[in-house]
Specification:
The chain is mostly helical. The chain is built from nine helices and no strands. The longest helix is centred in the middle third of the chain and has 29 residues.
């Protein structure tokens, strides 16, 4: 099967998720900076989630670029990923509205953990379908960041139940780790073209 519909659907769902998140931010009733002060946690949680969704979109785009064949299993794995990403607006809002309280911050981590696991499942099925010699398989190699992220999320979830700032700090660290441009797929494409 072709991958065009999978890519278009995924792009549309991610665009809707981001739109829902921004619409959840309520406009303050005052006209000065003091009116914005109560919204700082809502805004910070929005920025964090926007960055995470941008990372997922970017990595998904690169992964689909080197994917040649799509199976029914890949379609379902992609839907599984989109399910967890669709929960991001809910946990973002809950965490922001409650000023990064322990339980909402921990649940935010659970959603990030499950999204990471579902991305790994999708990646694994794509490699299995397209072969161990596929560009994606060559590009991801040992996938150190992909393996360490779930461990960090689990630490963050537990840490959030003690002090929510622990979870928040780890979520920021993981986002920064993935925000650094990952050129593995681009290098694999360049090697194949050479």
């Amino acid at each position: 099967m072709g991958k065009n519909r999978l890519e278009a659907f995924s792009d549309g769902v991610l665009a809707i998720i981001i739109t829902i998140m921004v619409l959840e931010m309520k406009v303050p009733h005052g006209a000065d900076f003091d009116a914005l002060r109560p919204l700082w946690s809502v805004f910070l949680s929005y920025v964090m989630s926007f960055v995470y969704l941008a990372i997922y979109w970017n990595n998904h785009h690169h992964m689909m670029h080197v994917t040649k064949n799509v199976s029914g299993g890949i379609l379902w794995a992609n839907i599984h990923l989109l399910f967890w990403l669709s929960l991001v607006p809910f946990v973002t809002g809950w965490m922001g509205e409650n000023h990064f309280a322990r339980m909402p911050t921990a649940l935010y981590g659970v959603v990030l953990l499950m999204a990471g696991i579902s991305y790994y499942i999708l990646q694994t099925l794509i490699v299995r379908t397209n072969g161990r010699d596929s560009l994606l398989a060559q590009a991801i190699g040992r996938d150190v960041k992909g393996k360490i992220s779930p461990v960090l999320y689990m630490i963050a979830i537990v840490g959030s139940m003690v002090y929510s700032w622990i979870g928040w700090a780890i979520y920021v660290f993981v986002a920064l780790m993935w925000l650094v441009p990952d050129r593995r797929i681009e290098r694999a494409i360049h090697r194949e073209d050479s």
